[in-house]
Amino acid sequence: MKKKWLLTMLTFLLVAATALAGCGKSEQTGGEKTEETDKPTTLVYGRGGDSVGLDPATVTDGESFKVTKNIFDTLLDYNDGDTSIQPALAEKWEVSPDGLTYTFTLRKGVKFHDGTDFNAEAVVFNFERWANGNADTFPYYGSMFGGYKNDEGHVIKEVKALDEHTVQFVLKRPQAPFLKNLAMVPFAIASPEAVKKYGDKFGENPVGTGPFVFKEWKRNERIVLEKNKEYWLEGHPKLDKLIFVSIPDNSARLNALLKGEIDIMEDLNPSDLAQVEGNKDFQVFKRPSMNVGYVGLTVTRGPLGNKLVRQALNHAVDKQAIIDAFYAGQAQPAKNPLPPSIPGYNDAIQDYPYDLEKAKQLLAEAGYPNGFEMELWAMPVPRPYMPDGQKVAEALQASFAKIGVKAKIVTYEWATYLDKVAKGEADAFLLGWTGDNGDADNFLYALLDKDSIGSNNYTYYANDELHNILIEAQTVSDENKRNELYKKAQEIIKEDAPWIPLVHSTPLLAGKANIEGFNPHPTGTDKFTKVQFK
Amino acid sequence: MFSYTVKRLLTVIPVLLGMSLVVFFMIRAIPGNPAQVILGQKATKEAVEALTHKLGLDQPWYVQYIKYLGGLLKGDLGESLRTGVAVSQEIWPYLAATLELSLAAMFIAVVIGVNAGIISAWFQNSWFDYVAMVLALVGVSMPIFWLGLMEQWIFAINLDWFPTSGREDVRNPIEPITHLYVIDTLMQGHTDQFVQTLQHLVLPSVALATIPMAIIARMTRSSMLEVMKSDYIRTARAKGLSMFWVVYKHSLKNAIIPVLTVIGLQMGLLLGGAILTETIFSWPGIGRYIYEAIGYRDYPVIQSGILIVAMIFIFINLIVDLLYAAIDPRIKYN
Prior knowledge:
Radius of gyration of chain B: 24 Å
Strand order of the largest sheet of chain A: 8-9-10-1-11-19-12
Largest interface: A-B, 59 and 67 residues
Radius of gyration of chain A: 26 Å
Oligomer: heterodimer
Order of helices and strands of chain B: HHHHHHHHHHHHH
Shape of chain A: globular
Number of helices of chain B: 13
Helix content of chain B: over 70%
Strand content of chain B: under 5%
Number of helices of chain A: 16
Shape of chain B: globular
């Protein structure tokens, strides 16, 4: 009797479990069969977080841009593999010799997803909308075009529709990166009718001219886009459906890819690279590097105020060893704050070689022959330029110990970390930056100019000579002269050493082997127009 | 009984009020300006100031708190700072997802935990007893994070039995009605989606169930051992009643009271502790909702989310207390 009861119970559990599991299996193989006969047309893209909003002009986060890039088009777009400019909604353009007037010829016959026409008036409407906003409503507009309508620094004097398909921008003063700025996702052209119709809710009901039409958004779960059958690029997009799903944990996301629940995943841990490379069903995509991971040395804090000390710390870091250990080799050592892919990069600069004797000598010269104690802050979250802040910090700690500098590793939750670092509370800290538009200004001015103290210049480094150069470079429209200025700027920064530039990493993505046409873009936002399954 | 219930319900008010106050201040004590976090690392100072002002975060704390309380009384949980959507409007799908997951986990934990405890007690010092108790010990000390990834690796990828993550197949999505997918799919008569829902539930709920299952098993075992030593059980056995009858009719009724307390407590912990499970299995539940809100310093979401979880916790404890009386008439509330 006893045994019988036990047996019944166990059998029941077993049957229930196998029944469920069995269903899973048959369904899975069923799915694979259809994939064999005709190729799939839905692509599921797995990423770490959800979007904040889908009106690209109102948000600043990369997760939002990734989606809106596919719903909207900009006047100009970046090339496939780099940040040089190519036509998009504007077929061609002319720049006046004084660099003040830009005339764009717009593509004809383009329609917004709601059926209304794309024309010069629509472009004017969008720019008027942003210019009439403020830092709160359209944050990127102000920072890229020097403010809003009545601000003194506002670069755009006027945007006018010359005819149905010609639009002209008149600037108050030349702005060197103007075309590159226009290609940024936040300046995508939205349907004026839809903006009027949805008002504040436009960010949940985006309407553009892009290759995909917005369909559904379940927050923290997925965003579904469907093919724009009337897309202006003949025969495109190739996919019928594009789904963005959020799977926060990198390892869990890899599991979902291996299981076939998603087709492409971002942020592959470098340590998982071998696992994907060794599997013929999958391929690895490498995003061209447009970032920098660095150790900031806050110049207002103790011994770090001394240039010699900062140079000594620079000499004490073996960058290649860090790359081999924590980036699976998928990075290159950084000697400048700029990545080499950006015009103006100074390749003539010599990095501080890994040289402990030299480091000790510099420390002694600075008056710290026995070293000193400091805090080294480690990032709590993985970033493309820093897959594991804690481990990199430990390696740096060991290096610094060799020259007598005792570093205590400190970490905070991410928002707290950024807040405290911005306030200048860290001695040495790990951080990084991914470029927005492929322009040197977006790195050097944003991160190291004295104007940026309190926002992104976390080291509180201020150098007037550098400041003058960077400001001049913002207004010069001659590309060569500009690059010379940036090269000079990098020399000054190298000498003053407010940073230990560590790496320019290659962010990794993994996907199914039968995906083609997917070329990850250095800006981190990809357009899926040409992507398809083989 | 009725007056006891009413009294218990009334005590909920000061508890929730205190709770709201504590949460309100604690989240404001952590550094990090929501406006800065929302706008991101690349935002300008002016943008941050403008948003801070728009969100009313530059007002004194008591003004903010009174406004918040006033809103609560009107049933207004505030708007998410990040998305601008009313919390009361967007919270239910998350709550439903967590309830479904927690109930499934609790079901597994209770069915397996209680039975394993009973069998271990009945066959005290047998191999089953030893194995079950060692497993229970392992279960208590296993990190959910690791367990979840292992489950995915073994049962989803290698054995191909279950999906790794999410609540549904995104290529064949479920049309939500109540947001409890087990019910929704049944209501719509989509058997394939119903099975799919159950399959998605298995791995995360097992991961979530592991710790309470182990605790319940140990609690049941010791409680049963106590009861089985008593005279009336010996009498029942001497009369030749079957094991099933003795255990489930006579012993369990008395042994279950302390177990119920544990189940009640664990159910509350499940709600709060679902964060890790929900992250690993990208389950769009309340744990992740609140966790992400903390990352963004989304005060209204954190405040209201925690308040609602607290209410559920209190409610479950109330049910447990009332169940005592139903099971054991000797317990009186006066």
